[in-house]
């Protein structure tokens, strides 16, 4: 009838039997499946009619295996001889239809073969993916937790550490589902029954929850990345652009392997070409990445900073332009570090303005603990940076909420309200001129 329409394909691969009843119901309503691409399916408008559908599992029809390979073609020929017309493939699933009055038999599918295919193809593929996610999440949680200042300095890292436990819980639930599914499948096959629910409404709801959760997490992470990019994180911009280029190349190569290749050797050739192309692009693009761009002496105009042109104390340190490393997030609207390099000495400071006083207190404590960690200790320096007691003379000079000081490394850590300030290097932290200048600029 000359019309087509896209529908969400909210099905998990293991619910392939429910797909059959769904497609038959859609045909009865006047929609015929033409193509499945990821989580979307294209249907053509037809006159409502009864059409039989079967979704079969092909062991070697995976992501990089061509549906036009010799094995796939042979299987499709057998199905066509039995009265089925091939429609499309999605991973390990091949879709066939028949407009005959009676459902064609045999379907070239028996229970023993189906059990073997489900175990070797769909179930093992799903299990491997779930175990991979669990392992990956466990590794990330080991390195990212406990949460510290470094995770709050970008929206991407902040959101990532927040959703990571959710991904871990979701993967654990899916693992339990897979184990229960396999048990029920083996039990049904043992009884001589075809396994799989035909209730496509429940299957679509289940798939919608899984796909919807994945989409939601992806949107949240992409939003965080976009916020970081618009905030001036050029390193992230370079890395993401390189990733996008690699993904585009992979998609092109995936199309070539699935649509154009008719031999398995050609698939491996395309894969080798994909890897080589990606390596070439990365090697060609890497030198153009300016990883020092954030270290250039520029900050937004509204950022407080030590300016040597306006402060006599900074002029006395020497005519040196600072190197800035700027970060920011929803929890840290302003966060940067500044470094001054002299011939035989250095001076640096870090300023963090948090969205709330409790966040600032957390950052203060994290900096203190991180500084005293063994990997940051210096040879010959056994002392720790300790918080000063309220009766210490520095409290009378600085008039802040909390102070930590390390005499050997000349490091001072200050907390006042929602602001955290850390100095390290050459200043005399009891110099009235230095204290007055810092208070006027930062506090």
From TrEMBL:
Transmembrane segments: 127-145, 157-181, 209-229, 235-256, 268-286
Keywords carried by this UniProt record: Membrane, Transmembrane, Transmembrane helix
Pfam families: DUF2812
Identification of the protein by name: DUF2812 domain-containing protein
Source organism of the structure: Isachenkonia alkalipeptolytica
Lineage, uppermost ranks: Bacteria, Bacillati, Bacillota, Clostridia, Eubacteriales
């Amino acid at each position: 009838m000359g019309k087509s329409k896209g529908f969400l394909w909210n099905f998990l691969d293991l619910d392939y039997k429910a797909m059959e009843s769904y497609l038959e119901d859609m045909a009865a309503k006047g929609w015929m499946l033409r193509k499945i691409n990821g989580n979307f399916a294209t249907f053509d408008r037809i006159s409502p009619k009864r059409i039989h559908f079967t979704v079969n599992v092909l062991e070697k029809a995976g992501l990089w295996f061509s549906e036009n390979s010799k094995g796939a073609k042979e299987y499709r020929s057998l199905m066509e001889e039995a009265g089925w017309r091939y429609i499309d493939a999605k991973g390990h699933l091949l879709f066939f239809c028949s407009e005959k009055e009676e459902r064609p038999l045999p379907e070239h599918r028996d229970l023993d073969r189906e059990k073997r295919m489900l175990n070797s193809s769909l179930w093992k593929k799903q299990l491997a993916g779930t175990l991979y996610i669990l392992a990956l999440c466990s590794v990330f949680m080991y390195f990212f937790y406990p949460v510290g200042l470094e995770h709050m300095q970008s929206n991407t890292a902040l959101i990532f550490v927040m959703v990571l436990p959710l991904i871990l819980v979701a993967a654990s639930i899916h693992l339990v589902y897979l184990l229960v599914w396999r048990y029920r499948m083996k039990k049904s096959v043992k009884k001589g029954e075809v396994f799989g629910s035909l209730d496509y409404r429940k299957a679509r709801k289940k798939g919608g929850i899984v796909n919807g959760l994945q989409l939601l997490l992806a949107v949240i992470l992409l939003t965080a990345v976009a916020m970081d990019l618009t905030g001036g994180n050029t390193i992230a911009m370079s890395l993401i652009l390189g990733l996008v280029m690699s993904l585009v190349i992979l998609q092109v190569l995936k199309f070539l392997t699935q649509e154009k290749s008719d031999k398995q050797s050609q698939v491996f050739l395309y894969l080798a070409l994909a890897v080589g192309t990606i390596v070439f692009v990365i090697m060609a693009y890497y030198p153009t990445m300016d990883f020092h761009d954030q270290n250039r002496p520029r900050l937004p105009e509204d950022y407080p900073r030590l300016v040597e042109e306006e402060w006599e104390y900074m002029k006395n340190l020497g005519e040196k332009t600072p190197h800035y490393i700027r970060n920011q997030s929803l929890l840290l609207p302003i966060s940067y570090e500044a470094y001054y390099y002299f011939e035989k000495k250095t001076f640096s400071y870090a300023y963090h303005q948090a969205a709330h006083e409790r966040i600032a207190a957390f950052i203060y404590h994290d900096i203190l603990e991180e500084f005293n960690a063994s990997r940051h200790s210096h040879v010959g320096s056994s002392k720790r940076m300790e918080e000063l007691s309220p009766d210490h003379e520095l409290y009378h000079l600085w008039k802040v909420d909390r102070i930590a000081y390390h005499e050997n490394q000349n490091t001072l850590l200050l907390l006042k309200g929602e602001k955290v300030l850390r100095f390290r290097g050459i200043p005399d932290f009891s110099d009235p001129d230095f204290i007055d200048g810092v208070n006027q600029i930062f506090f």
